[in-house]
From TrEMBL:
One of its GO terms (molecular function) is nucleotide binding. A divalent metal cation binds at residues 8-9, 43, 96. This is 5'-nucleotidase SurE. PANTHER family: 5'-NUCLEOTIDASE SURE (PTHR30457), PHOSPHATASE, PUTATIVE (AFU_ORTHOLOGUE AFUA_4G01070)-RELATED (PTHR30457:SF0). It is found in: Cytoplasm. The keyword Cytoplasm applies.
Length: 261
């Protein structure tokens, strides 16, 4: 198996080392793991692509490249430059430092990389490690992802879990903020919503008198509704959420047609 990996925390992020180990186990001795990751951190860029300016790419080692762009840029670079002679069988994005559950999903560059792969017709899985009191102080806060990541991916590679729809499925996996031994299991979950949790802006004045705004995130340990991703994670479970890039609210189509007519 040929696997392309990327992330949004940057080429030197510890989570990417974890993903490399996971991908190598999945690929096997006869497989290949290729890395195209952002040269610098790209957290929060979502599905951004560098449409108005070129992306510089540099080879660091064999099958290891850094690109000055977003995770989606990196996937495009992988498919149309680095691996153009033979496309990957699978794209993995992560392992993100912090959760990409609930509303974080909409901002996440980790998700953006997996989404771009799906739009290009490649099976893709995003992986993120929730941080909290249960794992932040561990020698390896990613140990839940490292211990359970490969088995989750192997399960998700079941052909019954994929399709060839125009907006192809991809999967969002979040590991709970607990030690690996304390993970309770795996749950299929929908995307949750943290009430009263929003990104905000905080103003500060520099020593030169200029005003700057810092974007701040909201509380990450607010429980979401039962059966959703963050709720599962905070209860000690790995969440797996099937996703598509289609943003249409199909439940509203009929009502909208009635109003418009």
């Amino acid at each position: 198996m040929r696997i392309l990996i990327t992330n949004d925390d940057g080429i030197n992020a510890p989570g990417l080392k974890v993903l490399t180990a996971i991908a190598q186990e999945i690929a096997g001795a006869d497989g290949e793991v290729w890395t195209v990751a952002p040269a610098f951190e790209q957290s929060g860029v979502g599905h951004c692509i560098s449409y108005t300016h070129p992306t510089m790419i540099a080879q660091l080692e064999e099958r290891r490249f850094a690109a000055e762009g977003s995770p989606a840029d990196c996937v495009i670079a992988g498919l149309y430059d680095v691996m153009k002679d033979k496309r990957p069988d699978l794209v993995l994005s992560g392992v993100n430092r912090g959760n990409n559950a609930a509303e974080n999903t909409l901002y996440s560059g980790t998700i953006g990389g997996a989404m771009e792969a799906a739009l290009q017709g490649i099976p893709a899985i995003a992986l993120s490690q929730y941080y909290g009191a249960g794992n932040a102080a561990l020698d390896d806060p990613f140990e839940a992802a490292l211990a359970h990541g490969a088995s989750i991916i192997k399960t998700l590679l079941d052909p019954a879990l994929w399709d060839d729809a125009n907006y192809r499925l991809f999967y969002n996996v979040n590991f709970p903020p607990v030690p690996a031994a304390d993970v309770k299991g795996v749950q299929a979950a929908s995307q949750g919503f943290r009430k009263n949790t929003n990104f905000t802006a905080e103003a500060q004045t520099s020593p030169t008198g200029r005003k700057f705004l810092w974007v701040r995130g909201g509380p990450q340990h607010e429980p979401t509704a039962p059966g959703t991703d963050a709720a599962a994670n905070l209860d000690g479970y790995i969440s797996v959420t099937p996703m598509r890039a289609d943003l249409t609210d199909y439940d509203m189509i009929a009502a909208l047609e009635d109003v418009l007519s």
